[in-house]
Amino acid sequence: MLHTDLDSGSKKFLVEQVTTTARIALKNLVSKGLLPWPTVYSKEFWDVAIAEGFSTVAGMQPDVGTLDEESLQEFMNQANDILVDVKDTVEEFVQVTKDHVSEVKSSLKSMDKKDEDKLFYDEIERLRRQNKHLEKKAKQTEEKVKEQARTIEELRSKVRIDGLTGLLNRHALESDLSKELSKVKRYRYPLCLIMCDIDHFKKVNDTYGHSIGDKVLKNLALIWKKSIRETDSIYRYGGEEFMIIAPHTDKKEGLMLAERLRKRASSYRFVVAPPADYITITVSLGVSEAKPGDTMLDAVNRVDKALYMAKEQGRNRSVVL
Q: Quick check: 279 and 220 in contact, CB under 8 A?
């Protein structure tokens, strides 16, 4: 915002500089295909935007709450690009101002009158204050963009998390499994999938109610999350089904992991009505090792078939396919 105590010549100079830098920044943003947000820039900046014919850009702010994961990534990249553009614009303005100050200083050397010296020194001081104001605005803009980036990261995290158990969800599984299968194809290392299902879970819900069923799911998720390795990932596949991705793990090692999960689940007492009542559960698990040519559907179908075999053979067991 311009100081009201500047003389007309100084005001004209500063207005020209702000207008020029605003015009350059807007043209850069539009040429890059970016969608600038009105809250990022000052009122003066958007006054210039409207005067330059860019008014339609101001109403194109996307709704971050409805973006999918890929759009969130693109949106965050745009935020970073805008931040860089704002910094470049500020640096350009600062440099122009410094050049102007240098010219005024040079002129002062050839002057003798004290009144004229004071006038020019006052002008320099005003320009310095304007410089600080602009740098402060740039810092505030940078903080806004960083806050927006943090919000995007939070949204990205929510897209991948199951609301009940806190585990990764099926959307995250599909994304992660696709990446892991690509690595298997390229590097030929073993990758094991384990699909788990709580035996007769409908009976738990029918007997004790869905709130107790939800409690069982949440507690089981905590138990299993502590039972897998750091390199493994566990997902809620849907309902009472879970999936585990275990990189660098063959079928033999996968079976050992599945049995550890099965035993810990069956030995745990799930409290129904404290302090005395509890229930126990059993689980069935299917184990399968991915093949280099597997699609995601191939890998999931194979481990699902192994789980089906575990149920057919009497439940409360792990079967490798």
A: no
Write out the H or E segment, with its range, that includes residue 95: helix 69-109
Question: First-to-last CA distance in the chain?
Answer: 71
**CB contact set of 321 (below 8 Å; sequence gap of 6+):** 286, 287, 288, 302, 303, 305, 306, 309
pLDDT in tens, the chain (321 residues): 344 444 565 556 656 666 666 666 666 665 555 545 444 455 555 565 566 555 555 444 444 444 455 655 565 666 666 666 666 666 666 676 666 666 666 665 555 555 556 666 777 777 778 778 777 877 777 777 777 777 766 666 667 899 899 999 999 999 999 999 999 999 999 999 999 999 999 999 999 999 999 999 999 999 999 999 999 999 999 999 999 999 999 999 999 999 999 999 999 999 887 766 889 999 999 999 999 989 999 999 999 999 999 999 999 999 999
Q: Which domains does the chain have, with CATH numbers?
A: 8-160 (no CATH), 170-320 (3.30.70.270)
Contact predicate 223/211, CB 8 Å: no
Q: Which residues of 186-199 are buried (b: 16+ CB within 10 A; e: fewer)?
A: eeeebbbbbbbbbb
pTM value is 0.57
Q: In what side-by-side order are the strands of the sheet with 283-289? A: 233-238, 241-247, 191-198, 283-289, 318-320
Which residues are marked as active site?
A: 240
Closest CA to 321 of 187, 194, 201: 194
Number of H helices, E strands in the chain: 9, 7
